[in-house]
Amino acid sequence: MILVLDAGNTNIVLGVFNNGKMITNWRVSTDRNKSSDEYGMLINQLFEYNGLKMRELEAVVISSVVPPIMHSLQRAIIKYSGVSPLVVGPGVKTGIDIKYDNPKEVGSDRIINAAAAIHKYGGPVILVDFGTATTFCAVSEKAEYLGGAIAPGIIISSDALFQRAAKLPRVELVKPDKYVCKNTVSSMQAGIVFGFVGLVEHMIYNIKKELGWNHAKVIATGGLARLIAEHTRAIDTVDGLLTLDGLYIIYQMNRK
Question: Which of 109, 129, 239, 245 is catalytic?
Fold first, then answer.
C-alpha cells in the first residue's frame, strides 16, 4: 500500500493506493498545533477504521504548503508506519518543466496537479483549484507549467465579509436559488457563489485568449469545485482527487 498526503492551509487530504488504485481517502482539518503523536494517532485511527494497518505501508508521499506542520507530519509517519516519507520538493521528479521566474515560488500542490492533469487528460490544460486560495494554472501540451493567477478562496472571502461587516452573518455556502434575493443570507450566498462563477469564467476566457488555447481542457479541483462548476460551462471536468492522483504518479516516477 502507498499513502499519499497533501497538507493544505485548511485541510489535509489523504489517500491510500493498492495495486495502482485508490482504495480510500480522507479529508481532515489542518492544525498547526498538533504534535507528531496526535497526527500519528489520527492517521492510525483512520487506517484502523477502514481495516488497514499503517505498518503494511510500502511508501508514503507528502506534499505540503504549510511548513510549520511538516516536522510533525514526517515524525508521525516514521514513528507509526516505519517508513521514511518522500517529500515533494526540489530534486523530486515531477515530469513538469516549470517556466516560472523563480520555480521555487510555485506551490508544490500546483505542480502536483499539473503532473496529474497531463497524465490523465493531456494538454494544453487549465487547472482551477478551489482551495484556501483559488488558483489558475496553465500547462502546455509539452508538460510546461507556464504560470497562472492566484485569487482569494471562497471561504476566505465569505469569512472576510462576516468579520468586517458588523450586520452580516456567517452563511453556509450552498447553491443559491436566484440572483435577486429577498433576505440577507440568500443575498450573501448568491453574491459569493455567482460572484466566483463570474471570476472563473472571466479568468478562463482570458487565459485561453492570451495563450491562443481555444480547445484547452479546463479541470477543476478542490473542496468547493462542484459548487461552482454546476453553474458554468467554462469548466469541463471536476476532479476532486486530482492532487492525490498526482502524488501517486510522482511516487511512480521517483521509486527506486
Answer: 109
